[in-house]
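USER: My hope is that you can spare some time for a protein that puzzles me. I am handing you a single protein, as its sequence and its fold in token form. Walk me, if you will, through where the backbone shape changes along the chain. The protein I mean follows directly.
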Amino acid sequence: MQIHEGLSAELVINNPVVTTGTFDGVHLGHQKIINRLNQIADGMGGESVLLSFYPHPRMVLFPDDNEMKLLNTQDEKAALLEKYGIKHLFIIPFTKEFSRTSSLDFVRDVIINKIGTKKLVIGYNHHFGRNRQGSFEQLNELAPLYGFEVEEIPAIDVDSIEVSSTKIRNALLQGDIKNATTYLGHHFTISGKVVKGKQLGRTLNMPTANIEVADKYKLIPAKGIYAVTVKLKNELLKGVMSIGNNPTVNGKAQTIEVNIFDFDKDIYNDYLEVNLVERLRDELKFDSIEELKTQMQKDKEQAQKLLA
């Protein structure tokens, strides 16, 4: 997959089949659009193109919204889009000035003049441009004028519940990993650099990797203990992750720590990709360190069974 920062470069893309949107989470609804995009591109000897935006439009339009969190970092999203077959990812800087671009100007200047779109594929009820004025109906009117085709993907339901990034965020914030995974079509990922912590795990004979998530907009799920898989470079490992404040030892700041099974290498400053498989329990405060050690061993055994 080729990643293009902005729209300044001169490009020649063979029969571009294009979709546009933030695609946060790259969930089942997004995957349905991507699959159709790739299917059309393959059928006409073309290449699939996704026009995305960063920062997320809500961050620019509502800068005081401190509750705004994203399912993916930019790197996580790019990896998922490549996994699902996108050939070109354009990351368009979203600014207040850009937000004032009319839907007509966006179609003419970007979709047609810059990308040379042959077919545009959009999700159900997708709106774009200044004040979200652009719609499927408008695209149908513009298509013959500018020589492209347009197709709308119907809404996708999972157990009669429409899939959306908002529903997935809410599920994760409630610790509902099973539903989040169902809606996503893949495990939710937390990735970051391993940094030095208080090294409490070593004193409990269960060393942990303390993960620093650099992106302040990255959503962190509910506090608790999770069974996880861990990707370290090209190695796939298993473990238990804790999200919380370590209340048994009166911890203050929230940490994200992973105990990787049967692993004791120095991985400080390495990057881990942690995939949440299942939530085991809430974060608890124990009366003693011994009680904590006993529970941690139980957590490990439960996770090993789940991940076997």
Summary: Residues 187-307 form a domain with the Elongation Factor Tu (Ef-tu); domain 3 fold (CATH 2.40.30.30). The chain has two domains: 2-161, 187-307. Residues 108 and 146 are 8 Å apart (CA to CA).
